[in-house]
Design a protein that fits this description.
The complex is a heterodimer of chains A (489) and B (172). Chain A is an all-alpha fold. Helix content of chain A is 70%, strand content 1%. In chain A, α7 runs parallel beside α22. Classes of the chains: A mainly alpha (489), B mainly alpha (172).
């Protein structure tokens, strides 16, 4: 079950994730997107383990600059800054890093247990899926757009439509005629979702970072990790549990993610703490709760992605891209067709969490070295990595151009404050929705009631309706509470 | 922020019209189903047009004029970096800087088929480093060349991943 390749992928992914997460401005999804093209030549199981382990490593890596230079490496590490940097100011940086690492390990194992328990049972309904069910599943996936649209539901829906439009480029799934290809043979097979993701996340962020100033330097003398002692274990056990529970709920819920869960966990840990007054002044509990939460999310965010094929965060969307590269379609049938990949992923995630504990200690020195490099050199190497990776997908400079084009789109979307995830959902789910919708209608002689007669399809569409109505009500309520605010429906 | 919504809404409306027109040009096969290859694209375009109009109407009804200084000086507030807290350039000059980065990538695409991977990727690292404020000199050139060799060894020689061979392919 544990092959050398799998173990290597888990360790390499964690190492890459910690390094990427430690660089301010490079989110876990960008760290994963940079790696995505290089997974082409790998064994499918090792490829998805490499990406999932990167996610695990990046969630911990973000806490390193948060504690040392008061700059969260990832958004989810923002809550760690509060007490992490305060502990560093008191000369306890090593202890703070140790608590962060240990809590991340605990949260990661908790999240993995939840993932194994929740994702597996859904495989039992896999064989009953028909084109109508798959169409309904796609609609359910698209219905979470309201939850991942941020402040503006209208912009989120528009982004999703752009994604659906991109998915319609190429050969028509039913008749085989070419659509929107401009006579280009490269576009006949459509635009691979991986190019959209690398463009939006990695190239777009490079363009944004080109005018951002650099960050502070970290001192290497204060960054020797000190693992917590048994007395500290007992003290941080409760905030770790709170963080893990918060991470479970937020990871499973679409649009939740590590950032929200980390702040919720911080808040709840303070509420239930016997040392409330220490929070904000260097409380170990204030590090343990958010770090356990964001590492729990790294595993629980995979529950909807694996079982239903619905990515609930940017990082799980990139991981979904890793599955698609290898022809693996996440969703119920994945458990039937490729149980070895699922088992390998679970084992790989366990190794990744153990690897995080080991590498988190060993990799501190190179991590600090990397954070302290001049930003111009870092940008040059990251740019080189991106173009090399995209070219490697199909040895095509045309693909490099497409990725750059989507980098411009990503830059524009950041400028106009349009969320990415709905667009990624549209690109990933567009083909599934259209092809199964039309196939189902062909099989039923054009009878739309077929979607309600199939119990699985009806149930999924019912869930989708609940999601859509809930999102609309939430946005309407937010607008009524803050009529002058940016939050709009 | 409403002026940005107006620009975005206008651009999206133009895209929806263009996309709808292009959808009408998609040939209909003899084997076409009831929906056909034009069906859903046309629906996407119509919904996008409707949402664009909502954004435009909202922008016109409630026009804003950018992020204003809360003290009421009337001048746009200076944006501040989330990383370091220092002021960052205004949106126009930021877009120009981003366009420069993009240009470096485009030049790479143009030159790579002739120069090959090693030289073109070294050039990309050197150009990006210089463009981002690095100095032009022997150290920068050395770092770029070492970077190029590192990437060539890693991808081409070690991992066997194809990269642009150029006119004079370098075999591992």
């Amino acid at each position: 079950m544990v092959t050398p390749g799998l173990a290597f992928a888990a360790f390499a992914g964690v190492a890459w994730g910690i390094l990427g997460g430690a660089l301010p401005g490079i989110s876990p999804s960008i760290t994963m997107a940079l790696l995505l093209p290089f997974t082409y030549g790998l064994d499918p199981t090792n490829a998805v383990v490499l990406l999932a382990a990167t996610y695990v490593g990046a969630e911990y890596g973000g806490s390193i600059p948060a504690i040392l230079i008061r700059t969260p490496g990832t958004n989810a590490a923002a809550a760690t800054v509060i007490d992490g940097y305060a502990m560093k100011e008191q000369g306890k940086a090593g202890e703070a890093l140790g608590i962060s690492l240990y809590s991340g390990f605990v949260g990661g194992l908790f999240g993995l247990a939840v993932l194994v328990l929740l994702a597996q049972p859904l495989s039992s309904v896999a064989l009953a899926f028909t084109p109508t069910s798959y169409f309904a599943l796609g609609v359910l996936g698209l219905s979470v757009i309201g939850s991942v649209s941020g402040d503006s539901l209208v912009k989120g829906l528009m982004a999703a439509l752009f994604g659906l439009m991109i998915s319609s480029i190429g050969t028509d799934p039913v008749t085989g005629v070419s659509r929107f290809t401009f006579g280009s043979p490269e576009l006949l097979s459509g635009i691979p979702p991986i190019l959209v993701m690398v463009g939006l996340f990695a190239v777009g962020e490079l363009l944004v970072q080109s005018s951002e100033p650099g960050w502070e330097k970290a001192s290497s003398t204060e960054a020797r990790i000190r693992f917590p002692r048994p007395a500290m274990w007992r003290r941080i056990a409760r905030p770790q549990l709170i963080g893990s529970v918060m991470g479970t709920f937020e990871g499973i819920m679409p649009g939740g993610g590590g950032t929200i869960s980390a702040f919720l966990a911080y808040n709840e840990a303070r509420r239930w703490s016997a040392n409330k007054e220490e929070f904000g002044k260097g409380s170990p509990e204030g590090i343990a709760a958010p770090e356990a939460a964001n590492n729990t999310v790294a595993c629980t965010a995979l529950v909807p992605m694996l079982s239903l094929g619905i990515p609930s965060s940017n990082s799980s969307a990139v991981l979904l891209g890793g599955f698609l590269i290898h022809g693996l379609i996440p969703g119920p049938m994945l458990f039937v067709k490729s149980p070895d990949v699922i088992t390998g992923l679970f084992v790989g995630l366990f190794i990744a969490n153990v690897a995080m504990l080991i590498l988190g200690y060993l990799i501190m020195a190179p991590c600090l070295w990397l954070v302290n490099r001049p930003k111009p050199y870092l940008m040059g190497f990251i740019y080189a990595f991106v173009v090399s990776g995209v070219y490697a997908i199909e040895a095509s400079l045309f693909h490099v151009g497409v990725a750059l084009l989507f980098g411009v789109v990503g830059y524009a979307m950041r400028y106009f404050k349009v969320p990415f995830l709905p667009m990624v959902l549209g690109v990933v789910l567009g083909f599934m929705v259209e092809s199964n919708y039309r196939r189902a209608l062909v099989l039923s002689s054009g009878d739309h009631m077929t979607f309600l007669r199939d119990p699985i399809s009806a149930g999924l569409l019912g869930f989708a309706a609940v999601f859509i109505v809930g999102s609309l009500l939430r946005h309407l309520f937010a607008r009524r509470v803050q009529p002058g605010a940016e939050a709009t429906v | 922020m409403k002026h940005r919504d107006l620009v975005f809404g206008g651009a999206a409306l133009a895209i929806s019209i263009l996309y709808y027109w292009m959808a009408t040009l998609v040939p209909i096969s003899q084997l076409a189903d009831a929906i056909g290859p034009q069906g859903l694209p046309k629906v996407y375009a119509l919904i996008l047009a409707a949402l664009s109009l909502i954004l435009l109407v909202r922008g016109v009804r409630d026009p804003g004029s950018g992020i204003r200084d809360p003290k009421g000086s009337g001048k746009p507030a200076t944006a501040v970096s989330k990383l370091s807290g220092s002021p960052i350039p205004d949106p126009r000059s930021r877009s120009f800087r981003a366009a420069g980065m993009l240009l470096i990538g485009i030049v790479y695409i143009v030159l790579a088929p002739w120069l090959g991977y090693l030289l073109s990727i070294s050039g990309l690292i050197f150009a990006t480093t210089y463009y981002q404020g690095g100095t032009v000199g022997r150290p920068a050139a050395l770092v770029a060349l070492c970077g190029g060799v590192f990437f060539w060894v890693l991808f081409v020689a070690f991992m066997g991943i194809a990269q642009p061979p150029g006119l004079f392919p370098l075999q591992p």
